[in-house]
Write a structure and sequence with these properties.
single chain; alpha+beta; eight-stranded antiparallel beta sheet; about 30% strand; binds zinc ion
């Protein structure tokens, strides 16, 4: 009973300290667990083995025992026991793991975490103490869940009913009795609903479920009423859209992976687009969003977001001695600096609408993100755009509405055009034989802006199409099939 008292015991700190002593630490929680197409010998879905028989899994870089057990829907303990592993933190790349058949199916449920679901909310939903949920899943941080993560719910066979009501963060002046009165609830009913033994204790900053009819209860701290992200999880080199719903007009700031997020006002909330670097560290990163009200009071929402490795190929590019002679480090660096300046702005207006169209219809001769080595110093370590192989003179079309911010010859990129589409989304077109626009022109989707060429550092006629979000090169092809924001 003593343990159960701690689960609601206000919060983060108490639960954290207790958990720290209770379970071991898993450093890289579940990178592979949420990969859309796990790359492995067997998966829980395509295994040919009849039920009850064992599979073998070969450990990949970045795997953790936790992530692997998640993929196969078994507990870490079961996986460790089947492989005689004493310390679950130590597994080696290439190690062959026996995947035991899942435990009796009626003994547990596998739950996919939704945005806004916290340990607190999950525990309430399944009628468990936080520790009863945290211990078997080896979860150590109370704010450590991330969308898409798999959590094993023991001793449950059916999905419980969705909880209805709202979330409330206990303030300095709150009492449970007053809160209950304000929301038409009995104080003891409110305490019981929150696994609390008494209505006379309210822990500051702890989260309460206020049962009601208002809609599905998720653990949003007011004034947040929803956070949507897509895609989840994002891959290296992809664009991540973050949409915040708010119950009050407040100002929103945020940060992710060490960079400030530019939030743009939208009806009922705010949105931001994040360019995930093609070389970004995989694993979970903390998204922090802060809502500040007029009097300076603020609410902070944090969410773990996993970044998944993209599979990139590699290529070596050898340019002729004459070309290499022009590409001095000074030339390359000054052009890079010019582009960084041009790609940096976060224009407030969203000029595009819907999906982008392809700027040219040709074979992709070099994909975004391809790791590259050049015989030129200071050249990019990876391909920052998509190359379409087409003959000189083939028309290039604007993929979406925008404003031209550059149309001029550059040394490395040849005849170049850059279009600003707003919200920090810009696209570039390199190596053109001709440009039909000038800086300042407004362009519309499908407009003929230039012709394919072989100018600048180019080893044959092609269009290099580049997209940057907030200055970070991303895969533009994602925008052909997905709508942003
Ligand atoms: Zn290219």
């Amino acid at each position: 009973m003593n343990r159960l008292r701690l689960d609601f015991g206000g919060g983060s700190l108490v639960a954290l300290i207790f958990l720290a002593g209770a379970v071991w630490w898993h450093p890289a929680v579940a990178v592979a667990a949420t990969a859309p197409q796990p790359r492995q010998e067997v998966t829980p879905h395509d295994s040919d083995s009849p039920p009850g028989q064992t599979d073998v899994y070969v450990v990949k870089p970045g795997d953790t025992l936790f992530a692997i057990s998640n993929q196969f829907g078994i507990t870490v303990d079961r996986l460790a026991a089947a492989n005689n592993i004493d310390d679950p933190a130590v597994i080696e790349v290439g190690q062959r793991l026996i995947i035991p058949p899942a435990a009796e199916p009626e003994q547990y449920l596998h739950h996919r975490v939704q945005p806004g679901e916290t340990l607190h909310a999950l525990a309430l939903r399944y009628g468990l103490a936080i520790l009863e949920l945290a211990e078997p899943n080896h979860l150590i941080r109370v704010d450590g869940l991330f969308p898409g993560q798999g959590v094993t719910i023991q001793d449950h066979t059916d999905e419980p009913a969705v909880l209805r009501g709202q979330s409330h963060t206990v303030s300095r002046t709150d009492t449970l009795v007053a809160l209950a009165a304000r929301h038409g609830l009995h104080p003891w009913a409110l305490a019981t609903a929150n696994n609390q033994e008494s209505p006379f204790i309210a822990w500051i900053n702890s989260h309460l479920w206020l049962p009601g009819e208002e809609g599905e209860y998720l653990d949003w701290p007011s004034p947040f009423s929803g956070v949507r992200m897509h895609p989840i999880p994002p891959d290296q080199g992809q664009t991540l859209s973050i949409q915040i719903s708010l119950t009050l007009p407040v100002s929103i700031t945020g940060s992710f992976m060490g960079a400030q997020l530019p939030f743009f006002q939208q009806p009922g909330g705010a949105g931001a687009l994040v360019g995930i670097d093609a070389l970004a560290q995989t694993g979970t990163h903390t998204l922090v969003v802060t809502a500040t009200v007029g009097d300076g009071g603020y609410t902070r929402y944090t969410q773990q977001v996993p970044i998944v490795a993209s599979e990139y190929s590699t290529e070596t590019i050898v340019v002729s001695e004459q070309v290499a002679a022009i590409m001095t480090p000074e030339t390359v660096q000054s052009e890079t600096a010019l582009l960084e300046q041009l790609f940096a702005p976060h224009s407030l207006l969203q000029m595009w609408d819907g999906c982008f169209a392809l700027p040219a219809h040709g074979d992709v001769t070099s994909a975004f993100g391809t790791r590259r080595s050049y015989n030129i110093p200071d050249a990019s370590a990876y391909h920052t755009g998509t190359d379409f192989g087409l003959s000189v003179g083939t028309p290039v079309h604007a993929p979406a509405d925008g404003v031209v911010v550059l149309s001029e010859p550059l040394t490395v990129r040849g005849n170049a055009i850059i279009i600003d589409h707003g919200w920090g989304v810009l696209t570039g077109y390199w190596h053109l034989s001709a440009s039909h626009v000038i800086a300042g022109d407004s362009v519309v989707q499908g407009q003929h802006i230039g012709d394919i060429g072989n100018t600048g550092l180019s080893t044959g006629p092609h269009l290099h199409w580049e997209m940057r979000i907030g200055g970070v090169p991303v895969d533009g092809l994602q925008w052909i099939s997905e709508q942003f924001p």
